[in-house]
Amino acid sequence: MKARVKTEKFDWKYFIKHIAIIAVPVALQNLLTTTGSMVDPMMLASLGEQTVGAVGLCAQFSSLMFSGYWGFVGGGMLFFSQYWGAKNDRGITRSFGLTLSFMMTVGLIFGFLALGRPEFIMSIYTDKPEIQQIGIRYLRLVGFAYPLQVLAMAISALLRSIEQVKIPLYGGIASVFANCFFNYIFIFGKFGMPEMGVTGAALGTVLAGVVNLLILLVFILKRKIPYVLEFSGYFRWDRDFIRQYLQKCFPILCNEVMIGVGNMMINIVLGHQSEKAIAAVAVFRTLEGLVIAFFSGFSNAATVLVGKEVGAGNHETAFQRAKRLVYLCSALIGTACLLLVGVHNPLLHAMGLSGESYRIGTGMLIIYSIAALIRMGNWTQNDTYRSAGDAAFGSIMEITFMYLMVLPCVYFANYALRAPFLLVFALCYVDEPVRYVIMQFHMYSGKWIKPVSDEGRRTIEDFRREHGIRIQKRVSGGYRFADGHTDGRPEGGARGFGCC
């Protein structure tokens, strides 16, 4: 029987205020970044649907790279936010160094593939020779942008975790304006430059990445934020720290890679449809990015607001915040989807869709708007678990349902039943309601709070006892609980650091 948990009245004013402080700049930055990704297909629309479709397929390769390094972003933010709550500067710096090392390895690998093997990449995503040739020209140049984007993402993740959310916003604003400016010059051959078409769009993306990174570094130097500047602290790892880091990152990495591969298999199905459908998918993915960009600001707020309290040892506060964040994020994403459906007509036409491709794109947006209510609730819960130290549960759920439910349904409907395209697309979200129910049970159990900081470990015993989470036995340096988690192991403190 669970013990009765006494909780103070929830401080909604503080909660909403700090969500806004963190979420709004992050959401704006992500919206700007996504708007930047829309610049290429919108400015290339005059060159035809084949060009739009080719660039959209190249964006799917970029998404696969994103899946490859996002496991380290998620694991890194877990450590950044908890160490920030514990005021452990040393922990933040070495976590950033380790995160950056892994992320740059992924960025360099994908950059090499884009530059050296673009033919192979395009042959995976489509069997249309004309679209392949356009995509090859784009990849051969845009591959230079990948390491720049990865480095900027690592720095932005750190800044968000320590509540310096405005700096990435400034970089995002500069990047979008730079992308529009350089695209205009190089795609259409303005100011004496040659008309480069799709190659000009790729060059604009590379130069925009340079601008974004420079803006981030200028503000970091100006504000003297120590973690990015203390290069000597990047590599002060010991075996125990690397093991702990990889234990937390490995489930997230597996999640992102496996889901990335699963999404690639889905995109292969969608990429072997008619040219009208391929163009609609390319535009939909860009608009989907708008919704995700809006939502991810609130997801980042969940990571910081929950992870910070877990790191500081305020587990009940983290628990109460997490439950409310899920429903709040779902409500906000529903509002965003309604807005997107309301303005879809001019958006789809502006991005080059008409006739059959317009009809398909409209259907995809309506299906997604319904599914996103539950999908983003699952996303919020998974990010919340990760920030609190439980990197495995949500990852196992997502991988299991992707490979045992989603992919079989999509492939069976497409190849065996020859189902209409929109039905195949709808089946991409068939697992979301089932996962949501399971994730809710885990949320209310409280078992996902697993701190990595000293401060968090000192108070976890009391929280688990209050919530009826059974303790198995005393072990050296701490307690081992029924789920196998051990707390109380010393890791060494560090000086505190106030918010810049």
What would your notes on this structure say?
This protein is mainly alpha-helical and about 500 residues long. Helix content is about 75%, strand content about 0%. The chain is built from 18 helices and three strands. Strand 2 and strand 3 (about 485) form a beta hairpin. Helix 14 (about 355-385) runs parallel beside helix 17. The termini are far apart. The model is unreliable at about 1-5 and about 470-500 (pLDDT under 50).
Task: Report the span from N to C terminus.
Answer: 46 Å
Strand segment tally = 3
Helix content: over 70%
Q: Give the count of helical stretches.
A: 18
How much of the sequence lies in strands comes to: under 5%
Order of helices and strands: HHHHHHHHHHHHHHHHHHEEE
- Please list the strands of the largest sheet in the order they lie side by side: 1-2-3
Taking the sheet with the most strands, its summary is:
3 strands, antiparallel
Chain-averaged pLDDT = 81
**So what's the overall shape?**
globular
Output the structural class.
mainly alpha
Point out poorly predicted stretches: 1-6, 471-500
Gyration radius, rounded = 23 Å
